[in-house]
């Protein structure tokens, strides 16, 4: 049975509205991920790019450009740029995390090797800069190059902070702003910039992307403890097993008594985990309301994203962006 427009998920409605542009983005991605001399590049890239991802970040760029009345063609270049940056970071992340599954499929580093994943990721970063330059906008280049640096900075900060019980919620948010929200906010901001939108509108798009990205990552971290493995494309408890101090764990550690803190010290800081530890961790998360309070924080960031849209012009896309913020946190209800 066909879904009505109102019953479709927000990103599906947006994809339908932007279908022609998304096809152009996909065509450009396939063209630019080709390599005459290194066939492994398109093999590795296609494995991830064509794995059924929602294309959320490039859609945000297209949506922002449409919302601001852009009638040119460079929003296609920028959307492809955003997707290349995202794909490159995923390839690198899976190597760093030693992941074996992404979007429900074996990771590239598992199917090929770490060297291929890192080098193909580097190639995609290079391709993304070529696409940026073709727009002829120094402001666009500034935004996306800064985002690329911020993403790398966030990932490095996570390396040092994720297994340190002294990590605070403020440090966690700094990591999230780097590794996730930076690309969301850049994706929306450049859509406004390429459309030569007023400064207030560009700022509103940036604020929306920033808040949406933070909400998105908090929900992702929450689903690691209470999601469905088939739906989220990875195993429940992976963050615990990989000793990542995400928001739920940070809250539980902050509220721990002496015995509980010793448990976190053993399993997270020292990495000595044994059978049954994940169940104990989940019990402590529930005991201290860490999952409940993390969900409330995610909803607060989603509300901020919706509020940020207020100065922007009335447009069908604006309603879709607002619904998208709601949908991000609906995944945890």
UniProtKB/TrEMBL annotation:
Q: Is Endoplasmic reticulum among the key words of this record?
A: no
Cofactor(s) listed in the protein's UniProt record: Mg(2+)
Spans through the membrane: none
Example of a GO biological process term: isoprenoid biosynthetic process
Q: Which UniProt keywords apply?
A: Magnesium, Metal-binding, Transferase
What this protein is called in its record is Octaprenyl diphosphate synthase
Tell me which EC number(s) this protein carries.
2.5.1.90
Q: Which organism is it from?
A: Roseobacter insulae
- Enumerate the catalysed reactions: 5 isopentenyl diphosphate + (2E,6E)-farnesyl diphosphate = all-trans-octaprenyl diphosphate + 5 diphosphate
Q: What does this protein do?
A: Supplies octaprenyl diphosphate, the precursor for the side chain of the isoprenoid quinones ubiquinone and menaquinone.
What is the uppermost EC class here? Answer: transferase
Q: Which family does it belong to?
A: Belongs to the FPP/GGPP synthase family.
Q: Which domain of life is it from?
A: Bacteria
Tell me yes or no: is tRNA-binding among this UniProt entry's keywords.
no
GO MF, any single term = metal ion binding
């Amino acid at each position: 049975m066909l879904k009505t427009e109102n019953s479709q998920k927000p990103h599906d409605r947006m994809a339908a509205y932007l279908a022609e542009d998304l096809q152009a983005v996909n065509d450009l991605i396939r063209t630019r991920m080709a390599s005459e001399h290194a066939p492994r590049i398109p093999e590795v890239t296609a494995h991830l790019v064509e794995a059924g991802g929602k294309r959320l970040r490039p859609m945000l760029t297209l949506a922002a450009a449409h919302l601001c009345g852009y009638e040119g063609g460079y929003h296609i270049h920028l959307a492809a740029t955003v997707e290349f940056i995202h794909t490159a970071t995923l390839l690198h992340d899976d190597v760093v995390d030693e992941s074996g599954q992404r979007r429900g499929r074996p990771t590239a580093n598992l199917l090929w090797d770490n060297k291929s994943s890192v080098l193909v990721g580097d190639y995609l970063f290079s391709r993304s800069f070529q696409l940026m330059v073709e727009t002829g906008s120094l402001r666009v280049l500034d935004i996306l190059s800064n985002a690329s640096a911020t993403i790398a900075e966030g990932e490095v900060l996570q390396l040092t902070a994720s297994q340190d019980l002294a990590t605070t919620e403020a440090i966690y948010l700094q990591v999230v702003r780097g590794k996730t929200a930076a690309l969301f906010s850049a994706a929306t901001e450049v859509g406004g910039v390429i459309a030569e939108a007023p400064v207030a509108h560009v700022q509103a798009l940036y604020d929306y992307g920033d808040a949406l990205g933070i909400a998105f990552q908090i929900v992702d971290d929450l689903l690691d403890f209470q999601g469905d493995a088939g739906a989220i494309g990875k195993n429940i408890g992976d963050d615990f097993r990989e000793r990542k101090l995400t928001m739920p764990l940070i809250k539980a550690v902050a509220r721990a008594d002496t015995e509980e803190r010793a448990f976190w010290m053993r399993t997270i800081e020292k990495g000595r985990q044994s059978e049954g530890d994940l169940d104990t961790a989940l019990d402590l998360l529930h005991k201290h309301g860490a999952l409940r309070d993390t969900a409330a924080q995610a909803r607060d960031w989603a509300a901020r994203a919706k509020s940020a849209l207020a100065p922007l012009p009335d447009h069908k896309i604006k309603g879709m962006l607002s619904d998208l913020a709601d949908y991000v946190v609906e995944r945890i209800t």
